[in-house]
Amino acid sequence: MKTIKDSVHDHIRIDGVARDLLDTPAVQRLRNIRQLGTVSLVYPSANHTRFEHSLGVYHLACEALDHLNVEGKRAERVHAAALLHDVGHGPFSHNLEPITHRRTGRYHDDVHDLLADGAVGDVLREHDLEPSAVADLVAGEGRFGQLVSGELDVDRMDYLVRDAHHTGVPYGTIDHGRLVRELTFADGELVLDEGNVQTAESLLVARALMNPAVYSHSVARIGKAMLRRASERLLDSPETDVDAARLQRMDDHDLIAALRSCPETSEFSRRLDHRDLYKRAVWAEIDDVPGGIIEADHEALLEFEREIADDAGIDPECVILDVPSRPSMKESTTSVVVNGDIRRLEQQSPLVEALRASQYSQWRLGVYSPPEMRDQVGRSAVETLGLDIDGALVSEVRDGLDATLDQFVD
Amino acid sequence: MKTIKDSVHDHIRIDGVARDLLDTPAVQRLRNIRQLGTVSLVYPSANHTRFEHSLGVYHLACEALDHLNVEGKRAERVHAAALLHDVGHGPFSHNLEPITHRRTGRYHDDVHDLLADGAVGDVLREHDLEPSAVADLVAGEGRFGQLVSGELDVDRMDYLVRDAHHTGVPYGTIDHGRLVRELTFADGELVLDEGNVQTAESLLVARALMNPAVYSHSVARIGKAMLRRASERLLDSPETDVDAARLQRMDDHDLIAALRSCPETSEFSRRLDHRDLYKRAVWAEIDDVPGGIIEADHEALLEFEREIADDAGIDPECVILDVPSRPSMKESTTSVVVNGDIRRLEQQSPLVEALRASQYSQWRLGVYSPPEMRDQVGRSAVETLGLDIDGALVSEVRDGLDATLDQFVD
Amino acid sequence: MKTIKDSVHDHIRIDGVARDLLDTPAVQRLRNIRQLGTVSLVYPSANHTRFEHSLGVYHLACEALDHLNVEGKRAERVHAAALLHDVGHGPFSHNLEPITHRRTGRYHDDVHDLLADGAVGDVLREHDLEPSAVADLVAGEGRFGQLVSGELDVDRMDYLVRDAHHTGVPYGTIDHGRLVRELTFADGELVLDEGNVQTAESLLVARALMNPAVYSHSVARIGKAMLRRASERLLDSPETDVDAARLQRMDDHDLIAALRSCPETSEFSRRLDHRDLYKRAVWAEIDDVPGGIIEADHEALLEFEREIADDAGIDPECVILDVPSRPSMKESTTSVVVNGDIRRLEQQSPLVEALRASQYSQWRLGVYSPPEMRDQVGRSAVETLGLDIDGALVSEVRDGLDATLDQFVD
Amino acid sequence: MKTIKDSVHDHIRIDGVARDLLDTPAVQRLRNIRQLGTVSLVYPSANHTRFEHSLGVYHLACEALDHLNVEGKRAERVHAAALLHDVGHGPFSHNLEPITHRRTGRYHDDVHDLLADGAVGDVLREHDLEPSAVADLVAGEGRFGQLVSGELDVDRMDYLVRDAHHTGVPYGTIDHGRLVRELTFADGELVLDEGNVQTAESLLVARALMNPAVYSHSVARIGKAMLRRASERLLDSPETDVDAARLQRMDDHDLIAALRSCPETSEFSRRLDHRDLYKRAVWAEIDDVPGGIIEADHEALLEFEREIADDAGIDPECVILDVPSRPSMKESTTSVVVNGDIRRLEQQSPLVEALRASQYSQWRLGVYSPPEMRDQVGRSAVETLGLDIDGALVSEVRDGLDATLDQFVD
């Protein structure tokens, strides 16, 4: 039995298979991957890592299983999955996932190979656990997969509280103790027990409030977009032999060092290092953006970027088009027992629809460029993309928003 | 300059008129009035008082005025109003306000007499402040009255954070530092500056989540209903000469001692002291309650109580009917600047309507009685009040809810 | 299984005999006894009660027993003792203990009668627990009594953290999780396991720093001295029939109401209510006080008070002489395993001797009086008690100290 | 005016010269230097950086200057120095300072060149501040230099609280609000005002308790020793052209990448990455170590290492000798006003001497090696260094200590 001191859960006790997995290179590597990627450009204290988060998820999984009276191999399998659930992350966590997914076809929670190989596979087999069964749990499959990756998973419970603690933004402070203790199974489904509609709402609300303040803060998005652009250039550079699979296995140090030393990426790298970021040239609401733009594929977006640059008469490297996918809300299908029946939260709570509408109204398409080119890039983007904003408005809104949003930008 | 250590704001510096007001009996009296009344029957750590809350409100008012560059007499007047805003409270804060209001016609924020008299009046006049002007601010009147009592007042900012801290329920943890700094005046109105729709939402959400978990927790409501019943009996007792005006000036100690020693109230008092509370015989949703019941006046409700008891063949003292007023949501008209215009939050945020719907769905009519009489009281109440629930359902729901809701009931 | 939300330990789960004891009048009564008595005159947030503290002690006892693998009846007995350990407290906790002890011969931890009688005795016997065996544990007797009342008891672990949380003074913030987990038995003695000299020191230091800042703050001492004086007058008043045994069973409300209504105590009561306290006329270090004064018995001190008043030509009620006993340091004999041997902390840590010296240097004899009589009382006390301070110095030191110490005095 | 959200001080407002310095590469670079170096190998949440610490020091400096009524250029100079005080740090903060100092003759607080050059120099001169005057403050020179670097500097106040927050070890939680407000100047010296002996003691105690638990934790020391060894090899490697000056200007990413890619250091790097650390072969108390060893210079220690390896018949790379300098206690000369006189804390408080003795007793010489070579290395080291421990004892103590000390080792 080992005890680890954690800034969120205080003492975490770790034992059995988890104890042995802790010392594997795959888990230790998570020490060098920041949980929130470029969010630390906005909130300077947000330097926590996937390692401590993984310990926290393991801790909450243990508490949930204790409460559910699950023991033996079945519990150990979940312990392993909880600790290992993020080993598939590349550098800067989710920030580069679209790139690596596009090139490798794999998301971070597809860890069948990673768990079968090397020290992790050895440890699992020593404890009589089938790596593929653990990987299935990480992918959210099966009864207990819901606890690791699902609407009521302990992953979310840990990250909301941890991200709130480290950014200083209080909105994520949920009552995880209550959540974990109200979990139960009904018809094979993980649900919140009778009397917890509000408990489920609080989880949803925490996520909804953290989103614009932290996860999708405009400056974090700009940083992420620049990092992605740089990483694409790195992958395409003839000077290096980094491919997507190798990128995926890097940690933050590797990637930063590679970006600094590669000639095609050193300027982006310098900007990120010095926080000399691009600024918003356009920041458009969903209703002002043609549907075709939102649905456009990667190639089409690249083409738009080139056109905007072309039209503005500047280097294409000076335009980044950032189009998030349409808002979704996974938590809306959270199951809660109400008067003995299992209900989806969205059937039960008027908040779900409202938060979905909020998300919709907070969605923004961004076009970013060096500050001195904002005006021409903005005009050109509005025209190229067919945005429903007249030129004057663009810069006005932009400045107003900058004044406000930069407030928390260090 | 005096510094006071506070468990929420750490160090509170107090100076000028506030420093002198601190030592008046009217302010010191607030030490003996619990902030949340019978909520401590549910959350045993919730023993904080109106005194520390008043210091916190004063502290946030100072911060807001600093930020708004308000100085001199105008600022001092607000300082005084902030510190004095709760001196009108009777014992157990809001718990008994309906009784005292019914008999004196006065709410706790009508403090014109209290501020003109005695030591408080003397201190205010020594500092060249007109007591009636300060009382106006307490009542929310005038430009700066909005800061003391309004949709964006510092009162709410303090109590949400303080109640969260002392109950242990995290939902009230708002970012008061940001709220205070984003306040501004537009057209004479206190508003949140550009870019703060979400800041306003977070305040609304915190209030909405604290409500069922804390302020309207069923056990706190039962305790409050029993305390009210006991206080009515005390006022009507021939053994004492306590009238509503005197009740209003008591503190918690006075009232508890009076209830313990008065023969007509000693049994209620014993029950409250031993937490041997009545239980819910009925707990009905708003759609199942005839409109006439919700709108009924005090006399009509007393008549209903008597009828229920009569019908059940028991002592009327064993039935308490608890009908909250229809849900309202003061914060919905919070003003926020959006693209240069002042907007009401309800126009801007889909959350307002959803939270209103939530409140509506959380509304409950309660009928309480000693546990051993629940069945007959429940049946009789359903019939007498014309509730749309059949007898069987009543006890089923009741038990289910009890099991769940009593979880946090110590 | 019941879950209670606590502001310090978050969720406390309570089961078995403790669950049943919770609802007894003796335990519910603790809701109305402030943990720190008159300390709330200095730290306005310090309104926590013996009830929540008792829950906390129960919680830590459960954790410790889990860790020590103690189960069954033996564990239940300790659970009961932990929850009941403070039922013997009178109003204002320790504040009046010298009075009641002098008149009843009983300290607050002598609870054999209280546990045998009434609902508590019934519950204990229903759970097959012998009340006297539980009372022995409360008194610190036997192997597990050390856990309830001893150098390493969970009582201290809870109150240090809780008092820090509620006063806002950070010094008491110990690592109780580590302490509880490092407990072990060696030769039947409760000790800290190998490698914990520093853990033991941290407990000692926390206590030593909280002492002058909180527990012995001069204003808390003055309030306590006035409360004691008032309580003595209450006991001696011909107008009431309160005796020491009855005083001991009162709660804070009872005592405050009694002091307010009794003619002999109403003036002290008014002063305490309005925080219109006596001030220090003398504040003398231990080396400046003749040994005879420190060792003097209660009668002798009364005689000194009368003499000082007489000499100053004022009402004896205007002089209070406050002589603490010589400093002691219970924690110095904490046992720690060092290289396999059990050692007393004082043998092992140079801090013990230093903290003892600190305590010695912080010891103060106080003479208190209404502010306007301080000079004559001070002069008269120096002479009567034979203090080694010349008149001029008395008032100088006094004023300097007042300026400083009153800083945290609200 | 910019506002930055900080996990420790909540909102930090930054203005004037500090606002402009924030965007310089020298300050932004601090984002990539972990505050506690290899301590994160023990406490996985300890990933905070010199950047957020520098903001915190700036924040406390502003509060202290406000309190001291210092304004204008004099204040701005201190603001700049506070924000810039750590720009001289190399990767892993203090961890490599002995190496770079030995080779460049410069400590991290010698920043005259760094402040005169580049963007920092430009910003300072634009604000009419002399870079060398700011650098003098960083070096602790002059009246206000004491506030930036001295016994009562705001540097320590920030790091104690911040390190406690991020490690989860509560001992560093001082009352910085009180400390800052009690600062005053007496005879040109920064002192704590009357009545603050205990305040000064609390600072000293916090430092003394954090030391063994955090700063000198054995595993953090082993990690540091391995990092130093690797860095020495890097500097000496013919494969790279990194010299000490360049090392000093690296950040953590640069160094880690360099160590990973250099053939001479890749094995150490792998061990650090996988937390596959050396273990203690010897862990000797100060009284068991000949004075000559403690005073030995760098060359002599290298010679001892070689001898131990030779004697044990193993590769010299497998032995690391770690000899801390003799304990010192800077805070012992903290000045406090007592009865109007300035006194050194060590004259006034018996704790100083005790804490010094504690430090002395906690001092340890370490010899580290791969786990499988511990026995032979231990025996050989005892003999070579002339330590006063017999062979058997070495491994016994070692194992006991490991069991205990590894408890908090993740």
Q: Could you characterize the architecture of this molecule?
A:
4 copies of one chain form a homotetramer. The first copy, chain A, is mostly helical. Chain A has 2 domains: 2-215, Hypothetical protein af1432 (Orthogonal Bundle), CATH 1.10.3210; 278-326 and 363-410, Alpha-Beta Plaits. Chain A has helices at 16-22, 25-28, 50-67, 72-84, 97-104, 112-116, 118-126, 131-138, 145-148, 154-167, 176-182, 197-215, 218-236, 244-249, 252-261, 266-273, 291-295, 298-312, 345-348, 350-362, 374-385, 391-405, and strands spanning 2-6, 10-14, 183-186, 189-192, 279-285, 320-322, 335-338, 341-344, 364-369. The first copy, chain A, has a 3-stranded antiparallel β-sheet, sandwiched between helices. In chain A, strands 1-2 form a two-stranded antiparallel sheet. The radius of gyration of chain A is 22 Å and the shape is globular. At the C-D interface, helix 12, helix 20 and helix 22 of C face helix 12, helix 20 and helix 22 of D. Chains A, B, C, D: One of its GO terms (molecular function) is dGTPase activity.
